[in-house]
Every structure is written in structure tokens, then in C-alpha cells.
Amino acid sequence: MRSLARRQEPPVPGLLPATGQSELARDGQAGLGGRGRGGEPVLEIADLSVAYRTTAGDVHAVEHVDLSLHPGEVVGLAGESGSGKSTLAYGACRLLRPPAIITGGSVTYRGRRLAEPVELLSLHPEQLRALRWREIAIVFQSAMNALNPVLKIRDQLLDVIEAHLDLSRDEAHERVGSLLDLVAIPRTRLKSYPHELSGGMRQRVMIAMALATDPEVVIMDEPTTALDVVVQRDILGQVVELKQELGFSVLFITHDLSLLLELAERIAVMYAGRLVEVAASQELLHAPAHPYTRGLLGSFPSLRGPRRELAGIPGSPPDLRGLPPGCPFLPRCAFATDSCAEVDMHLEPVGEATSGHLTACPFVTPGSPSPPSPPSPNGKGGRR
Q1: CB within 8 A of 332, min separation 6: which ones?
Q2: Is the pLDDT of residue 36 over 90?
Q3: What's the pLDDT score for residue 354?
Q4: CA 94 to chain centre
Q5: Could you tell me which of 138, 129, 134, 119 has the C-alpha nearest to residue 45?
Q6: Among 194, 204, 371, 360, CA closest to 298
Q7: What are the Cα distances from residue 29, in Å, to 26, 141, 238?
Q8: pLDDT tens profile 266-289
Q9: Highest mean pLDDT among 63-67, 141-145, 307-311
């Protein structure tokens, strides 16, 4: 990355000069946190489709997805492995490599430091490189693989700062130290290599690196995977504190829906490359509309309230090379009817609600009773 810091890159249209000041934190203190351009999303993904091109046919990993992220908001993106969550995020930031290709859609970014919105899918590669970490940063899924194993933590943080901020060497070193202060890591660890840190500390370093240039949007892709529950809770609490302090927006990607119910304000549920339900977290918990969301909610135990039986989701995700028409969840759905093979997968409002609760299933409503579970071999019912 050091070579990037010394290269004259084409400016992003309307991007204000980079400084070392915490613009987002200052705006939040001035009462601007959570307010964008007339209430418009800071990041808007519209009709985005991504495919992996193979000799056996295109794998349609993301199909016609619409998703928005407002200033200061935490949006969760949930779904089982292979549902297209990471592909959606990396496609929106144009981080995918062949054989992945974007086959349609648009991604609009409206940051406070921009004089006008920019379309990410049409930016020149050098413009995109200048925008990515400065405005939109990513905490990658595996911190051990994302960090450079032969560079000290200090040098990796300095690379990000030198590439995007116009600071003196002393200012850059002080900023690196303050970043570790933010994520509660002793400054003595700046001299450490990634393998000398615990999993939780490496993940905190990745979060510090993502916040190095005061981005307005932070995408977190499974940031607590492979960490024990105590460290997970500590890191998630730190993310919430930093978000409130600095005022950035978060797109949090995970397969753990129970985690998002505590962290996110709004949750989007993804299945087979499509969004099947979007709702406020508490509404999704108490009034899920899509059968797949119900299945996810029924697959983990509740820590409060009366005991309830758990229910898994039978079957496996479909082959994305050739999805049949209609709902892709049809073969695994307990509510399935013949009409499901003809359903349009566009998201529609749930009932007369104006709360932004959307679902792709027109046949199941939040009040619909669950069909009986098939008997298990032991004769005690299919739930356990």
C-alpha cells in the first residue's frame, strides 16, 4: 500500500480534501449525526445482481437486491452460508475478482464529504481506490488472513493513513496510537506481528484499521467468527460505543440472527441470493413474515421467557446455477403450495404496515399459524 500513498490518483468527483481531523465525530457533536441529504440513504444498493461465471453455467449469487443504509444506522444482513451476503457487500464495493461479474444494478454513495452523490459502479479504478477506505471501509471475515503476517501492526496502520490522509509523520504515528486506544489495545502492541496477538486483539486491530480515516460507512463481514462468546460480546459492545462516538453507519453481515437482534436497528434476511424479508429488528423478532425467517428464529434458544421447542430447517440450499421459477425456499418450506412456484420474488409491504416491514412471501402473514411438524422416527414429533 505504500506505493499507493505516493501516487497521484484522479480525484473522486466532489470529494473534499483529506485531513487528519475526525470530521464524522465533529459532525456528530454538532448535532448532525444520523442526518444525511434530506433523509436519503448514505449507501443505496439498487437492483444489484452478481454472478460467478463457470464452465457449468453462471452461478447467480446475488439477484436483484435492493438495500439501503442511512446515516448513523446499523443494518444487519443475515442468512445461512452461501446465501450471497458477502458477495453482495463485496460486489457493492467492487472488490470481487473474476470469475465474479456484476450483471446489473447500481450502488450510490452520498457521503457528507462529497459535494454530490457518486455511482460506485461507474468510478474509475483509481477513483474507487481513493474512495474505498476513506469513505467506505471493510472489516474482513478472517483477521488472521486479512492482516499481513510479515508487517508489524504499526506499519499496517500507517499504510492506511499514508495512503488516504495528508499528515506529517509525527501526526500519523500519534493517530496510530490513538486508534489502538479506541479499541482498548495497549500501544506497546504496535511493535507486534499479527501472529503474536490473540484472535480478539487481531479483530480489534482490523476494526481500528477500518476506522483509521474516519469512514462514513463500515461494512463488517462476520467480524466475530471463530471467537468465543465472551470476546464476541466485548467486541460487539465496542462496535456500538465507537458507532455512537464517531457517527458512522454499519452494515453488519452474519449468519447469526440472534446476534443481529441485539445489535442492528434493521435486519435484512437473505436466501439463495435474494432478500426475502426486511424489517426493524424487534418487528422481525415478534412478527416474522417469511417462512425462512421463522425457521431461523426457531433454530436458536431464547435466553428469556418460557422454554420453547427448537426447530431446524430441513433440506439444503438450492443450486444457484439454475433456480426454478418462483420462491427458491419452496422445497424446504412447511407452508409450500403450488402457487409458490409462480410467486414474484419482489419485496412487498406486510399488510397495511408503514413501518418498512417487507417480505417476498405473499401467502404467509405474521399471524399465520405454523403447520404441524412431521413426526420424527422416535415418534415424538419433528421438533426437539
Answers
A1: 292, 295, 313, 314, 315, 316
A2: no
A3: 62
A4: 14
A5: 119
A6: 371
A7: 5, 31, 19
A8: 999 999 999 999 999 999 999 999
A9: 63-67
Q: What pTM was computed for the model?
A: 0.86
Cell of 218: 463500515
Strands 74-78 and 249-254, by their bridges, are: parallel
Contact 69, 42 (CB under 8 A): yes
Which domains, from first to last, does the chain contain? 2-269 (3.40.50.300), 288-302+326-368 (no CATH)
Return the pLDDT at 233: 83
| Rg, Å, the chain Cα set | 22
Q: Indicate left, alpha or beta for 72 from its phi (over 0: left) and psi (-120 to 50: alpha).
A: left
Cell 451476503, located at residue: 85
State which H helix or E strand residue 164 sits in: helix 153-164
Alpha-carbon gap, residue 338 to 45, rounded angstroms = 32
Neighbours of 108 (CB within 10 A): 17
